[in-house]
């Protein structure tokens, strides 16, 4: 029997986050010093931490500019930190994207651009095509966020309605060499989809973006759709990218392996289900709950005590039934908590590895067989709260919120179901 299950789950989360530590990852992938200038650009939820880590590891002068989310940031000596909104873009992001594009222009082939990219950069770098406004990009992002589309599909659309995404930032830096170091938050770890790939060219086309718009019935204006139809991002065989290099330096796969190692040290059998699970958050939550319940009640599966681990990025489709508070991890876990009501010997944690689930201050939440009952005892209806996408309120009532604070990295969702 595990004496302190929540403490153990917290330890596993911390092990996963530590495995994605920006300094260690960057230090292992440092490029050679150039003949000319070193220009640093960073964008994403982990931008300031990655920039600070690079400054610490780099032996030489540099000129840096990073765009991070509003909130606490890491202190940098040679890098200016700009902040913008996430998940819906704001005017600060518009100005920051323009500054970033200006920062890489006028370079020579002897210069080096180091791009530090992490999840969240798509929203932090709004740069709509000429003739369009910030309001157009906000409307596009809101439509995508409400659609339930996976992140790869959303970013196919975003990179075709932008002057900075889809490799365009790297094209602006030519003829300088660009080395991109990526902390991946996307299932499959395709760097072209992390932050919509501002320095990574991609083979998707405008037709691919239009297919997403049609498949998810995105309510976009005719002008926006036509702009996407006429857009083509630079392709990998473009001469501007010939000397560039792209490295994924941290990912969910590595972090889940670290959590599994920590579980073994604690005498718990780990089973990694997948590091790339996508789908509707509440449905994925129910599937995880069903697996955990089967193992707990039937004694099947790995030797107990055991922990089921998974990563990836689920989605939440908002409908006419209202929009509450909470992110995809809380919604995932509230659905699981309802299905695990009164089930013993299972304790679960679902959290975002960047420390922020959605737009709230919690990383995620815990649940066990008593969570749904505690919500009801505090005056809430778990099913009604789930229907309203108000999982934060549900876990606030049951006092099951998990708060880690910003972690300085982002390798997407972390889920752990401890059995026995």
Automatic annotation (TrEMBL):
Residues in MOFRL-associated domain copies: 9-228
Claim: Phosphoprotein is one of the keywords in the record: no
Matching Pfam families: DUF4147, MOFRL
Keywords tagged on the record: Pyruvate
All residue ranges annotated as the MOFRL domain in the record: 307-413
InterPro entries the record matches: GK-like_C_sf, GK_N_sf, MOFRL, MOFRL_assoc_dom, MOFRL_protein
Molecular function as annotated in GO: glycerate kinase activity
Cellular component, GO, one term: cytoplasm
Protein name: Hydroxypyruvate reductase
Lineage, uppermost ranks: Bacteria, Pseudomonadati, Pseudomonadota, Alphaproteobacteria, Hyphomicrobiales
